[in-house]
Amino acid sequence: MTRPPTSRDLARLAGVSQATVSRVLTNNPKVNPETRARVLRVLEEANYIPNALARAMKTGRTDTIGVFMTRVTSPFHAELLDEIGRVLSALGLHMILWNIEHDPEESVGKMIQQRLVDGFVLTSATYDSSLHTIAVASGTPTVLLHRGIDGLDCDQVVGDNWQGAYDAGRYLAEAGHTDIGLVTLEHTGNTSRDRDLGFRAALADAGIRIKPRNVLTVGVPHADGHAAAQKLLSAKKPPTAIYTVTDLLAFGILDGARALGVRVPGDLWVIGFDNTDLAAWESFDLTSVEQPVHAIVETGIDLLRRRIENPDRPAEIITLPCPLKIRKSTANTPWRS
Amino acid sequence: MTRPPTSRDLARLAGVSQATVSRVLTNNPKVNPETRARVLRVLEEANYIPNALARAMKTGRTDTIGVFMTRVTSPFHAELLDEIGRVLSALGLHMILWNIEHDPEESVGKMIQQRLVDGFVLTSATYDSSLHTIAVASGTPTVLLHRGIDGLDCDQVVGDNWQGAYDAGRYLAEAGHTDIGLVTLEHTGNTSRDRDLGFRAALADAGIRIKPRNVLTVGVPHADGHAAAQKLLSAKKPPTAIYTVTDLLAFGILDGARALGVRVPGDLWVIGFDNTDLAAWESFDLTSVEQPVHAIVETGIDLLRRRIENPDRPAEIITLPCPLKIRKSTANTPWRS
């Protein structure tokens, strides 16, 4: 290794004074653009700092987007991450992935201040977190995908979870079910909240009262769906249908029902939410409300790029439809009562 | 927005000459360390360039590791990614994730040259790719996890796929199976190769001949396992056991068997490889050879950090055991023949 080049070496190579090199490095607007370009080229060629850093200094951009996510092992989140990667790659952008499940919020907050990236994608905003507020306040262009926060002044692209849940409830009501189970999550974000409230609204509109003992609030893993099914199905008069707010819980419910010998859809109908790839697998064949991942990501990254170009654009909140996808965990025939 | 600070402003703030600011920015070794630290602090506080870039200039490090991966939607890869994220976060390191499935190899090669990161983690090295060679040749510290490349002079941490596959074969042979199906992948990497050859070796050692029509080479998705099962099981004398080289294919095989009404393990035993979280789900209850993700990632990131500290350390290749985890897709009783 030779010694790193000095500013004198660099000035000589660029054919400028040392003061000019210094002005370029300190973003002094007085340097004329051609000289500036020549100096930066020399700096890059001399490798006195990494190329990407030199380019970042030149353009003020890192061509990198920071993505905040939780639970990449959940099938839905893995599909969301894959789609984000696909869209960013197609645009020639790098992705820094922060799995905020593993990072204390404090250290994530610090990272946000560091301006490592040109923009933020938040996929798991929750009401009890201040990350989205910190991200927006940092001035770095930010978009919320999949999970939105009401009233937050930033671009957001979400599914119409309420309507999708309503359609699932109406579908069960119209099929003649009256004993219906709801396996739900704490309302920490808009997805769990709207997927719960939309479903209840449909039952209320159909004049169906959901029994308090048929509503279980659980955690996110498969095992929690499994336990919930076992609890609901061991009642004297078990529900004839169970709706839940994520596919992962629905898989657990199907497995819990299977363990008890309860036949689906013969004895029990099950509906999930997300329409993940796994929902179509023979083991599950799950009726599910679709979260339109592809459209959410495409639209969201487009908003983010437009915000990077024009930081003063007014914030947009875009809501995309969540259609019900019917498979064999429910039947197309009325429920025998 | 005010104008960006000039080198004159910065020099005044730091109490040094403009020439000193310039020397600091060009890494001139003549600046005394205290002065250097003071100037960099002023630069950071003035935000004349992003903090992370200033720190990168100061330390020569970005505190960021580049992770190359494919197929994050496959349950095994999602678990691997989650574990890498967990370990890097605990060390205060950022992760740039390159999903090389979406990026043409050429552009990935370019990224490697840009020195955006302190080190590379490659999780999906294949014989027909030159990425690992480019990564190692770039001089950036590199570790191969999960997939290794024989003879490549860099740190590698892999599971003992051959031995794990051998144990699966011996287990089937000892249980009395003689008609055995093998659903395998092209040998594009060491995992598919060793998981195939180890299994064949065990059958050969047990004096069992595997019929050519019982060996199917397929693609990676669940649907390919499903189709393979349907093909193998519709033969006049179908195999009584099927072993395959990934859990994802095994899930497809279980689903294909289910669609035909073939009972597992009554009519058919199934063994997968990876021991993903899903393998334990009731739907599958899959006997599987474990890929020790946690140990592979912990060990691999440790090797990478040691290489970043000491680039001249000799390369280490570490192989960790892959134990067979028996569940209900196989029985603990001898096969009735």
UniProtKB/TrEMBL annotation, chains A, B:
| Molecular function in Gene Ontology | DNA-binding transcription factor activity; transcription cis-regulatory region binding
- Entries under InterPro entries matching the protein: HTH_LacI, LacI/GalR-like_sensor, Lambda_DNA-bd_dom_sf, Peripla_BP_I
Q: Which domain of life does the protein's organism represent?
A: Bacteria
Q: Which PROSITE patterns match?
A: HTH_LACI_2
Q: Which residues form the HTH lacI-type domain?
A: 5-59
Which SMART domains does this chain map to?
HTH_LACI (SM00354)
Which Gene3D superfamilies does the entry link to? 3.40.50.2300, lambda repressor-like DNA-binding domains
**Pfam families per UniProt:** LacI, Peripla_BP_3
- For the keyword Manganese, the answer is no
Keywords, sorted A to Z: DNA-binding, Transcription, Transcription regulation
What is the official name of this protein in its record?
A: LacI family transcriptional regulator
The source organism is Kribbella turkmenica
Q: What is the lineage of its organism?
A: Bacteria, Bacillati, Actinomycetota, Actinomycetes, Propionibacteriales
